[in-house]
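Students often ask what a 'structure token' actually looks like in practice. Rather than answer in the abstract, let us consider SSD domain-containing protein, a protein of 1316 residues. Its sequence is given first.
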Amino acid sequence: MTFISRGCFVLSTAGNTMVFSDRKSVSLSGFLAAIFILQVSVLAALLSAEKIGPQFLSISNPTYGETHSKEYCAMYDICGERSDGKVLNCPYGSPSVKPDELLSAKIQSLCPEISGNVCCTEAQFDTLRAQVQQAIPFLVGCPACLRNFLNLFCELSCSPNQSLFINVTSVSKVNGNLTVDAIDYFLTDTFGEGLYNSCKEVKFGTMNTRAIEFIGAGARNFKEWFEFIGQQADLGLPGSPYAINFQTSIPESSVMELMNVSVYSCGDSLLGCSCGDCPSSPVCSDLKPPPPHKNDFCSVRIGSLKVECVEFSLAILYIILVSAFFGWGLFHRTKERRPTSSMKPLLNFVDEDGINYVNVQKDEMKVHAMVPQMTNTVQLSIVQGYMSTFFRRYGTWVARNPTRVLFSSLAIVFILCLGLIRFEVETRPEKLWVSDGSKAAEEKHFFDSHLAPFYRIEQLILATMPDSKYGKSPSIVTEDNIQLLFEVQKKVDGLRANYSGNVVSLTDICLKPLGQDCATQSVLQYFKMDPENFDDYGGVGHAEYCFQHYTSADTCMSAFKAPLDPSTALGGFSGNNYSAASAFIVTYPVNNAVDEVGNENGKAVAWEKAFIQLVKDELLPMVQSSNLTLSFSSESSIEEELKRESTADVITILISYLVMFAYISVTLGDAPHWSTFYLSSKVLLGLSGVMVVLLSVLGSVAFFSAIGVKSTLIIMEVIPFLVLAVGVDNMCILVHAAKRQPLELPLEERISNALVEVGPSITLASLSEVLAFAVGGFISMPACRVFSMFAALAVLLDFLLQVTAFVALIVLDFLRAEDNRVDCFPCIKVPSSFVESDEVVGINQRNPGLLARYMEKVHARILGLWGVKIVVIAVFVAFSLASIALCTRIEPGLEQQIALPRDSYLQGYFNNITEYLRIGPPLYFVVRDYNYSSESRHTNQLCSISQCDSNSLLNEISRASLIPESSYIAKPAASWLDDFLVWISPEAFGCCRKFVNGSYCPPDDQPPCCTPDEGSCGLGGICKDCTTCFRHSDLDNDRPSTVQFREKLPWFLNALPSADCAKGGHGAYTSSVDLNGYESGIIQASEFRTYHTPLNKQGDYVSSMRAAREFSIRVSESLKIHIFPYSVFYIFFEQYLDIWRTALISIAIALGAVFIVCLAITSSIWSSAIIILVLAMIVVDLMGVMAILGIQLNAVSVVNLIMSIGIAVEFCVHISHAFSVSCGDRTQRAKEALCTMGSSVFSGITLTKLVGVIVLCFAKSEIFVVYYFQMYLALVFIGFLHGLVFLPVVLGMIGPPSRCVPIEKQQEVETTLHCS
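Now compare that with the structural description of the same chain:
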């Protein structure tokens, strides 16, 4: 559901910073050293530098390179070192030198443009080669970019014409030797622009970003890039040891020239790059990303008013319908009405031909014994006839054997309740809200089992309070706030939890990518998580410096040796203005386990509970005292809060039950005189009815428990309320029908007549409700499916108990009252002398009350007016058509805030997540059964470097990231495959290396080649004989063979990244490839990581998932490779992809089921169609109210819509049934139906639901208020208006024809009939 979406934000937060498959971190100290190449030049150095000054060295000075001509050097050889080990060139000009054959071959291998004489010694070239090897892994995927980049520094270091475009402008003394301190480098704009354009889109997959972010500080043009490269670095920091001033114009009268070596386009035919690294390549011109999808709704413009086509069409339809209806009404207005008597059903009988009839007599008509009479009888359908016969016989039998019926029915329920022995409650969110056959669930299981489960997230968000005057939050990046954050961190580090007698701390469970440091995401990482470093590093100024240089400055590297992206530790800023951030975001990634067997996450859960308690007890007051806000969450917070929610509203539910019970007791009883109140009240009967409802719920729960279906806590709260609201109606209708019967009849006949009168409509309503609820069992979400199943069985059991146990209770209560026994204390009998005889007569008879008289004298008469009918039809049709238009505005989803208690601490947390986070959830594209063998094309169909297919997976992802507004993909994917192919490339000579014996040889700056205590690592030592794994001749078109791939892939995944080779896969891709069984040439599972754009609304989550799946399907079909997208929130949002389809199909099935039941019982298509029409209008109107109130469409609201059909049936079938058994014209029959059942529908159905629903508005859980109070309250009002206003008008105008048949019979009983 919605719960995990919180984790998504957090997970992305951690993932974006930690470059370790979003599950494991990576030591990217190599990146720090790799930045050296950004300013790599001739790399001369100065030891104990003594500045001479930034003077321009005159050409006339014979000491320093006075000649600027061909075959002449501006700098030659190395004259010193800086204290940090960086070498410095000699500033002396000299003629170029012819190298020996070996040096010439070396230079040619790196700088093919240079031949003949050179201006560099072997030591200078070795330094150049050692430094550029750090940049090659970033750029080798784009040969044109790499060649241009190498040419820039090859010309600077070794060009024989160096003096033509290099001018030494400043020198320094080192140990008495002059060394270069600054130079001018003259080159053309053409070369600068060509170099930049060929490299600007090259991707650095490990960090999901462009390589220019690392080797050019995100430069937007070549001048910014050169300015960054030319900065002179301070001691110990990466960069050039001397200043390089790039110039694109030559001073007047100068003999110097602009360096203009050939520059290669990234789309070059020989050195061309992939489409991902070079979107402008002609090869990629036909593969441009599709334009952003725009939701262009059809609209019609009327003057300055723009109306959507749907709304315009509905308006036209409304005008046509109302006009047609008005015309039809005028045509029939002059039709003469036939005078017929107003009748009421009493008895049914079967004539000689076996046809069922119901005898109907006029009000106040006195009929004497044995007098021939012409009476109107109603011909019933076959089913209704059988039902009437059954209910007559059954009612007589129950009245004679109430005790037997009562105890036998209760015995059956008690036997069912034995199933409660196996009662279990399901509280795990993934088991409640995710279907077993869910595609997302299967993909998650595959991902977790083959790659790695996502880590657990604990998070704190500290934020400043908005200014009261301007409403803007001030910056949180202040010294006091950072010191406060250190105090918070100290308490978190000191937290200890107990798990099975063991002490658990954060360091015991946190994610440790490399070493012993937790991968905590916090701005404190810029100080190595050590408060002692705050002042030493420069305080707030250092933090602000790191916001812009987090990838390059050594002091900005985190304690876990990875760069920390400030956007993951700060919030509430715009663009890259990190210093204006108004929130600190602290994330603690914790190791996770699949946890299918046992409790592998027990330690983490125990620590999380202690963490939440610490925040509540200590951290929250501490932060609030500093005038900041604090929101927080842990991985287990949602589940714990849901458990609390399940019991939070128990009191509210109980009050709702008590209110309905009190109302039932009042409405069931009559008190014609206060002196007989204790006899006429029905408190005991009402309480018994409530017990019947509870027993039906217990029976339902017990039955499903017996067959192994787990219950949910919400079932125990909602279903009793729901069944009580439904069951109360039938109780009121049964009691009112029994009290309407003449007292002159024996009790047996009164009970049987009451069942004959209302039994068919009660059966119809109950069966419709059961079927409508059962339709919810087809919903895939387990919680809603189980809820629907439990509710359907509970309603069925409630109906069966009502027509058995409750009818028996009615008989016993009538006998009690007639025997003058006190309600609630039936053992106490009141002497007859204390009760007036006329009062006793009225105890069990319902005289026409105020409501009944209103229905007869006011309501029915007003609805009979022609003008009122037109207005009613016009208004109701208008609202239904408007609701159809509004339905398009209902959004799918379920906001996290609604799913939790109102007082939950997660409410503020979710609000802050939406407000402050600037990163979306991580997105993985998982490839199944990747065939890496030489015979397969899969490798080129997946990768995105040179020679990969232009429509490869990674190229397609890169193109999709260019249109994030529709693809929801924020950036290109991190590719283990690209980095592996680069890592084994001969050009990346510092990466894949082997010892003489063929075993893996690490880069020169890693053990055993270089020990940590060495100040600098030389080229000698144990690794001096290491060679690259492959020569170009060993590879097939730069691709490894099957054997080479199989052998070197584990090397790559275990290789640590470092300065000499930043492409090492350990940490970054450790869990990106499933090596189980890979020896066969098939990799069962591998993933390519990217990120979604920030997702703030439920609709964004649904749309992003739909976009990712559509993208994967398209690419899978194109490449014939099984690819699927995965993100941690997909499993809970999958239901919303087709929630509209599920809702419409379920509603259609429910309406169809009700129609079949109505048709089977009434045998009237006409009557059944009218009922379905009204039910459909009720559902549509309810959806219109949902749109107005902003209620989202989800499994809960879909179940409510389906159940609303069952509940709405009660507002319709009783009126419709009364109409069908009345005689006269349609208007008279509609009036008779209102007189007979109107008061019962209003008091027994509308008010009973209303009093119970209103109490729910005081619930603590927002989900109760929104989805049960608001929706059910709307349903009650809409159902009441349709049942007692719209339906009588429709029946009075186009109702089914009368079934009255005049027959002659002998009437023996004199009676008087009142309309009530």
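One point worth highlighting: The longest strand covers residues 177-186. Ask yourself how you might have guessed this from the sequence alone, and why that guess would often be unreliable.
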